[in-house]
Amino acid sequence: MIPVRVGNSILDHDHAELSCLLEDLHALWINRCGLRALLAGLIRFEDALCAHFAIEEAILGGCGYPGLAHHKGQHRAFLGEVATFRKALAEGNHPEDGRPLHGFDIASRLSDLLYAHELVEDSSYIPALTVLPDVPEDVIRQRLSPLVEEATQLKTAPQPVLHAADAPALTPQATHALTRLTREMAGGGLKPEQVAADFLPYWVEQTPLSC
């Protein structure tokens, strides 16, 4: 699928990556890589989706998007469906009629869900992103510094990945969002300048993020 662009470099980066992860999941099915590989691919997508939603909610909260409560509800529903697929795949059954579940079923359904979510729900908040919160540059630098430091450390000492499947609940937290950003900076997927411009102005550290 072609990811929807919303004009925020971090969110656009996430949309592109999520699309690639679903393409990878489809390729795993085509190449008959087996159940364990499919499950691992689905967990990678779930982890990325959970972190993306946390980042997105922080940005929308920071710009005062009036549809945030509804948007969070859509996130909960999406994550719930992914979790249902994960559990069904682990058990080797279809969540509805008991027939064997194939990677094609999962990749196709999630691609449809993701595209519809981006096209309808995400496109609705684009106007809100045009109003950048007025945050002093010294505050941005103060917020960015520890993230860059952690990203630098990750380059030499990678940390274990926290899978959404292992999380106690499907409610993205602020720490998940920040961990996602530091890993992306460590891997070169995001530049510190992008985080400073397109995330940190919206982030209110004292407000925990949840669905």
Automatic annotation (TrEMBL):
<keyword id="KW-0408">Iron</keyword>
<dbReference type="Pfam" id="PF01814">
    <property type="entry name" value="Hemerythrin"/>
</dbReference>
<dbReference type="InterPro" id="IPR012312">
    <property type="entry name" value="Hemerythrin-like"/>
</dbReference>
<keyword id="KW-0479">Metal-binding</keyword>
<comment type="similarity">
    <text>Belongs to the hemerythrin family.</text>
</comment>
<dbReference type="InterPro" id="IPR016131">
    <property type="entry name" value="Haemerythrin_Fe_BS"/>
</dbReference>
<dbReference type="GO" id="GO:0046872">
    <property type="term" value="F:metal ion binding"/>
</dbReference>
<feature type="domain" description="Hemerythrin-like">
    <location>
        <begin position="8"/>
        <end position="129"/>
    </location>
</feature>
<dbReference type="InterPro" id="IPR012827">
    <property type="entry name" value="Hemerythrin_metal-bd"/>
</dbReference>
<protein>
    <submittedName>
        <fullName>Hemerythrin-like metal-binding protein</fullName>
    </submittedName>
</protein>
<dbReference type="InterPro" id="IPR035938">
    <property type="entry name" value="Hemerythrin-like_sf"/>
</dbReference>
